[in-house]
Specification:
Order of helices and strands of chain A: HHEHHHHHHHEHHEEHH
CATH architecture of chain A: Up-down Bundle
Largest sheet of chain C: 6 strands, antiparallel
Number of helices of chain C: 1
CATH superfamily of the largest domain in chain C: Rieske [2Fe-2S] iron-sulphur domain
Strand content of chain A: under 5%
CATH class of the largest domain in chain C: Mainly Beta
CATH class of chain A: Mainly Alpha
Order of helices and strands of chain C: HEEEEEEEEEE
Largest interface: A-B, 26 and 22 residues
Number of strands of chain C: 10
Chains: A mainly alpha (about 350), B mainly alpha (about 425), C alpha+beta (about 150)
Distance between the termini of chain C: 78 Å
Shape of chain A: globular
Strand order of the largest sheet of chain C: 1-10-9-4-3-2
Strand content of chain C: 25-35%
Number of domains of chain C: 2
Helix content of chain A: 55-70%
CATH superfamily of chain A: Cytochrome Bc1 Complex, Chain C
Shape of chain C: elongated
Oligomer: heterotrimer
Largest sheet of chain A: 2 strands, antiparallel
C-alpha cells in the first residue's frame, strides 16, 4: 500500500473502521515448512464453495422446484439458456470437487494434527462443515428430478428410517411425507438453497474466524518459533490464486468434455432401474451396508451399519480429545494409522462398488 | 329320452332364482365326506359361478336336495323318480347346459346381455355334429368350461379366459394320438405360441390380440373358409386389408383360391414382419409367384430398395443424434422429430400391401425429408459441441497464461 | 516533460501483463455469466404449456398433432366448434393417433382402435382412454396445458 493515506480510504475509515481489517490482512503470515502445501486445501474448499454459491444463484434464475416442472426446467437450462450447459455442469462438477477437497483438507488436518489445543473448536466446526457439504450433495442431487436421483433419494431416506427411535420421524421429516414425492423435492430445495446455506454461513464464519485468530497450525515436527514465514499478501494469496485458476480451468474442461448428464424424468410408478448407486462420496457406506448380513445376533444388519457410521462420525467430531495432547514429536501414535486405515477402507469399498 | 323329459320337469327354468346366497343342499353334506371324483365337485363349488348365483347340484343333476342324512338316504335323495339323472353322458351334456343357457327368459334373470345361441352354434360345428353322432373324443361344453368349478369367461383362472384359450384347445388339438384318426395337424398351438399374437396375448397380456376362437369361432368352431379368416385379420389390421382389397393381388389370389393374408403371413405361426419378406432375394416371398424380370418382380425390387433406403437414412440420422446426445448435447427435440420419420417408415411398410411402388412415393419422400432435417440437426449439435470445445480451448489458454504469469510473479517476489 | 517517467523494467512489464491477463480471465468468466442471465429467445420450457396452433389453422371437424413435452399430443376442433386436446399416444401399443373427419372421432391406424371426442376408447384394442389436456384460446393462439 502507498505510504500516504488516500482520501477515499480516510472517508471509509471514519465510517466503517476498515483499516483494522486491512492491518490484520497485511500482517497475516503463513509458516513455511515441508508440509505447508496442505495449507492450500482449506482455501480451495472455500473457493469451490464460492463457485457453488455463484453458479447455484445463477441456476436459481431458471430452475423450478416442482415435480411437474423441475426436470423440464433443467432441460431448458441445458438447451435454451445461453451457457446454461456450462453453469449447470460446473455446478455439478464443482460439488464433487468441493467435497473431494473437503476430505483432503480434513485428512491433512488429521495427519498434521492441526486439531491440538487451542484449535479443537476449529476442528469441530470443520467436521460439522464436512457433514453439511454431504447434506448439500444429497439434497442437490434430487433437484433435477431424474430417475437415478429419485431412486437414490428413496434408498437414502429409507436408510434414514432405520435409525432407532427417531427413524420413522426422520424419514417423514426428510421426505415431507411417507413416500418420495413432489413434496420431497420442494423440501429438499428449501434445505439446499436456504437452510443449509444459513447454517453453513454461521459455521463457516466461526471456522474462518478461529483460523484467523489462531493462525495456521504447524505439525508437531516443526518448531513454531523457528519456522520461516511467508506473507499472506502477496505470496500465499498468489499461490492460492494459481490453484483457484487451475480449478476454474479444470471445471471448464470438465463441463465441455464431460458434461453432466440429465437422464430421464423420474417416474414414481416405474420400477427401479438396475445398478442404482448414490454419489461417490456415499458409495463406501452404501457398499458396506450391502455386505453386512441381514441379521447379526438378532440385531438388524442395516441398523448395525448405520450405528457404525454414526459412531464413526461422532469419533470424527471429538478427535481432538481422543489422543493425548502432549506427545513427543518423534512418536507418531496410533491416530495416523487409523487415518490411513480409514482412507484405505473408503478407497477399497468405493472401488468394489464400481467394479462389481 | 325319458330321462330328458324328467329333467325338463324337474329343472323348471322358472324355478331358477337369481338368489344371492347359495342354497345349502344335502348333496354337499354327504359328498364332502367321500373322496376322489365324488369329492371333487364339492371342493370346486365355491369357484363355480352357478353356485355363486344360488344354483346347486340338484339344478343340473336333479334329485331332492331337502332329503338329508336324518330324513332318508341316498336312495331317497338320488331317486330317479325325484328327477335324479346322475352323471349325464357325453352326448347329453350340451343339451343339459342348453336347458338354461339357450333360454333368454332364464338367462335374463342372471345377465340380461347373455347370449343364448351357443347351443345352436354348437350343433352346426364339427365338434357338435360328431358329438351328437356319438363320438366320445370331441369337445363338448364341460371340456372347455369345466363341469364343476365353472368360472366366468372374464375370470383369469378360467380355461376360456383369452390367454388360456390356446392351451385349452391344445389339450386335444396338440395330442397326436387323439388327432390321428381325424387327420388334423397338431402343431397349431405350438405355432401360435411362437407367433406375434401368441406372444402379445400370453406373454404381454394384451387382451386385444387374437387367439383360436377369434378366427375359428367359439361354439360354432369350424375350419374357416379361405375367404373368411382374412376378414377377421382386417378388423384390426384395417389399413392393410383396405389396401390389399384395392390392389391387384386381391383378384389374383381369389382366382387362384389363395387365402388373402395367410398366403404370405401364414395362419398360426404369424411371425413378426420384416423387410426381408419383400424383394427378390431369399427369404422374400415375392419370387414364389413372380418370375424373374416380370413386372411384379421389378416392382418388388423397387419397393424393397426404397424402403431399405429410407431405413438407412433414418438410421444414419439417428446415429448422429445419438453421438451428439452421448457427448452431452441436448437433442431431445430432433430425436422427437426423427420418431415422426420412423412413423413414415412404418406407414410405407403398410403401404406395401398396395403392391404399387408409385403409391408409396408420398410417404417415402416425407420420411426422407424428415431424415434429412434430423441429420442436419445432428450435425448442428455436433458443430455446437465443437464450438464449445473451441471456446474452452480459448479460455483454457487465457487461464493457463494467467497461471504462468502468476508463477513468474511469485518467483520474482521470492527473489 | 515527465520527470518521473522510469524506463520500463521487467517488473513493470510483468505487472502490465498480469493486469491484462487478470482482465482477460475476468472477462472469460464474466462473459458466459452475463449471457446466462439474459433471458433466452424461448422464454419457458414447453413441457407444461404450449401453443398448439393458431386459431385460423384449425377448421371445425379437423385435428392437428403437435409436440407437447417429449410426446405427441392432438388438438381437435369438433364440428360444433369446441376445442379438445389429448395425449396422442395410443393406449394400446403407443402408435400416434389421428383425427378422422368422416367418422368425427380419433383413430389409431395401427390396429384400428377408436376413441370418441371425450378421449374414451370405444372400439378396437385400446384398453384405456386418452388423457385429456386443458385448452385455452389466448388471442389468436390456442394454448394447451396439462391439468
Amino acid at each position: 500500500m502507498a505510504a500516504g493515506k488516500s482520501k477515499w480510504g480516510d472517508w471509509l475509515e471514519e465510517r466503517t473502521g476498515w483499516r483494522l481489517v486491512q492491518e490484520l490482512i497485511e500482517h497475516k503470515d503463513v509458516p513455511r515448512h515441508r508440509h505447508s502445501f496442505w495449507y492450500y486445501f482449506g482455501g480451495m474448499t472455500l473457493f469451490l464453495f464460492a463457485v457453488q454459491v455463484c453458479t447455484g444463484i445463477l441456476l436459481l434464475l431458471y430452475y423450478r422446484p416442482s415435480a411437474e416442472a423441475a426436470f423440464e426446467s433443467v432441460q431448458f437450462i441445458m438447451t435454451e439458456v445461453q451457457f446454461g450447459w456450462l453453469i449447470r455442469s460446473v455446478h455439478s462438477w464443482s460439488a464433487n470437487l468441493m467435497i473431494a477437497a473437503a476430505f483432503v483438507h480434513m485428512f491433512s488436518a488429521l495427519f498434521l494434527r492441526s486439531f491440538r489445543r487451542p484449535r479443537e473448536l476449529t476442528w469441530v466446526s470443520g467436521s460439522l462443515l464436512l457433514f453439511l457439504s454431504l447434506a448439500f450433495g444429497f439434497s442437490g442431487y434430487l433437484l433435477p428430478w431424474n430417475k437415478l436421483a429419485f431412486f437414490a433419494t428413496k434408498v437414502g431416506t429409507d436408510i434414514a428410517g432405520v435409525v432407532p427411535l427417531i427413524g420413522p420421524f426422520l424419514l417423514r421429516f426428510l421426505r415431507g411425507g411417507d413416500e418420495v414425492t413432489g413434496a420431497t423435492l420442494t423440501r429438499f430445495f428449501g434445505f439446499h438453497v436456504a437452510i443449509l446455506p444459513a447454517v453453513t454461513t454461521a459455521l463457516l464464519s466461526i471456522h474462518l474466524y478461529l483460523v484467523q485468530k489462531h493462525g495456521m497450525s504447524v505439525p508437531p515436527s516443526v518448531d513454531p518459533e523457528k519456522a520461516p514465514r511467508m506473507r499472506f499478501i502477496p505470496d500465499f494469496l498468489l499461490r492460492d490464486l494459481v490453484g483457484w485458476l487451475a480449478a476454474i480451468a479444470l471445471l471448464a474442461g470438465l463441463a465441455a468434455i464431460f458434461p453432466w448428464e440429465l437422464g430421464e424424468k423420474a417416474d414414481p410408478f416405474a420400477p427401479a432401474p438396475a445398478g442404482i448407486k448414490p454419489e461417490w462420496y456415499f458409495v463406501f457406506m452404501f457398499q458396506t451396508l450391502k455386505y453386512i448380513p441381514a441379521k447379526i445376533l438378532t440385531i438388524d444388519g442395516e441398523l448395525l451399519g448405520i450405528m457404525f457410521f454414526s459412531i464413526l462420525g461422532l469419533l470424527l467430531v471429538i478427535t481432538p480429545w481422543l489422543s493425548p495432547a502432549q506427545r513427543p514429536a518423534e512418536k507418531r501414535g496410533w491416530l495416523p494409522v487409523v487415518g490411513v486405515l480409514v482412507i484405505v477402507y473408503i478407497a477399497v469399498l468405493s472401488a468394489m462398488a464400481y467394479l462389481t | 329320452m325319458w330321462q330328458q323329459l324328467l329333467l325338463l320337469m324337474v329343472l323348471n327354468p322358472a324355478q331358477a332364482q337369481a338368489a344371492p346366497r347359495p342354497v345349502e343342499s344335502t348333496c354337499v353334506r354327504c359328498h364332502q365326506d367321500l373322496d376322489g371324483s365324488l369329492l371333487e365337485p364339492v371342493k370346486l363349488r365355491t369357484q363355480d359361478i352357478h353356485f355363486q348365483k344360488g344354483l346347486s347340484c340338484h339344478n343340473c343333476h336333479g334329485g331332492d336336495p331337502a332329503i338329508g342324512i336324518e330324513t332318508g338316504g341316498p336312495e331317497d335323495s338320488m331317486n330317479p323318480r325325484k328327477g335324479f339323472t346322475g352323471r349325464p353322458s357325453r352326448r347329453q351334456i350340451a343339451a343339459l347346459c342348453a336347458i338354461c343357457h339357450s333360454q333368454i327368459e332364464t338367462m335374463r334373470k342372471f345377465n340380461p346381455q347373455a347370449r343364448v345361441d351357443q347351443y345352436a352354434e354348437y350343433l352346426t360345428s364339427v365338434h357338435g355334429k360328431k358329438n351328437q353322432a356319438g363320438d366320445p373324443n370331441v369337445a363338448t361344453c364341460s371340456d372347455c368350461h369345466g363341469a364343476h368349478g365353472v368360472r366366468a369367461v372374464k375370470d383369469a383362472n378360467s380355461p376360456v379366459y383369452a390367454p388360456n384359450v390356446a392351451a385349452t384347445c391344445g389339450r386335444c388339438h396338440a395330442d397326436a394320438k387323439l388327432m390321428s384318426s381325424y387327420r388334423i395337424p397338431t402343431n397349431q398351438a405350438e405355432q401360435y405360441g411362437k407367433s406375434v399374437h401368441g406372444e402379445a396375448l400370453m406373454k404381454n397380456r394384451d387382451l386385444a390380440a387374437p387367439t383360436c376362437n377369434s378366427c375359428h369361432g367359439n361354439h360354432g368352431a369350424a375350419p374357416p373358409g379361405v375367404d373368411s379368416v382374412a376378414n377377421v385379420c382386417g378388423q384390426c389390421h384395417a389399413m392393410q386389408w383396405d389396401m390389399f382389397g384395392k390392389s391387384a393381388h386381391k383378384k389374383a389370389f381369389e382366382e387362384q383360391k389363395l387365402p388373402a393374408c395367410a398366403t404370405c403371413h401364414q395362419n398360426h405361426l404369424i411371425e413378426r414382419t420384416s423387410d426381408a419378406m419383400i424383394g427378390n432375394e431369399e427369404p422374400a416371398l415375392c419370387p414364389a409367384c413372380h418370375e424373374q424380370g416380370s413386372a411384379g418382380y421389378l416392382a418388388a425390387r423397387l419397393m424393397k430398395s426404397r424402403i431399405a433406403g429410407l431405413e438407412a437414412r433414418l438410421a444414419a440420422a439417428g446415429q448422429i443424434l445419438q453421438r451428439a446426445a452421448r457427448a452431452g448435447m441436448e437433442v431431445s427435440n430432433p430425436i422427437y422429430k426423427l420418431s415422426e420419420g420412423r412413423d413414415r417408415l412404418i406407414h410405407a411398410r403398410v403401404e406395401v400391401h398396395m403392391f404399387n411402388p408409385a403409391a408409396m412415393q408420398k410417404t417415402l419422400s416425407e420420411g426422407e425429408s424428415i431424415a434429412a432435417d434430423s441429420e442436419q440437426s445432428g450435425q448442428k449439435a455436433l458443430a455446437d459441441l465443437a464450438y464449445r470445445r473451441a471456446g474452452l480451448a480459448v479460455s483454457a489458454v487465457i487461464l493457463l497464461c494467467m497461471i504462468g504469469l502468476l508463477l513468474l510473479k511469485i518467483r520474482r517476489l521470492r527473489a | 516533460m515527465m520527470p518521473d517517467q522510469q524506463p520500463p523494467t521487467r517488473r513493470n512489464i510483468l505487472n502490465y501483463f498480469l493486469g491484462t491477463g487478470a482482465l482477460a480471465s475476468l472477462g472469460a468468466i464474466l462473459y458466459p455469466i452475463t449471457r446466462f442471465m439474459i433471458p433466452p429467445r424461448i422464454v419457458e420450457s414447453a413441457a407444461s404449456s404450449v401453443v398448439a396452433a393458431k386459431v385460423a389453422e384449425i377448421k371445425p371437424n379437423s385435428g392437428k398433432v403437435f409436440k407437447f413435452g417429449s410426446k405427441p399430443a392432438i388438438l381437435v376442433q369438433t364440428p360444433t366448434g369446441e376445442y379438445h386436446a389429448f395425449d396422442a399416444v395410443c393406449t394400446h401399443l403407443d402408435c400416434t393417433v389421428q383425427y378422422r373427419p368422416e367418422e368425427r372421432l380419433i383413430w389409431c391406424a395401427c390396429h384400428n382402435g377408436r376413441y370418441d371426442l371425450t378421449g374414451k376408447n370405444i372400439s378396437g384394442p385400446p384398453p384405456r382412454p386418452l388423457e385429456e389436456f386443458k385448452v385455452n384460446v389466448r388471442g389468436d393462439e390456442i394454448v394447451v396445458s396439462r391439468g
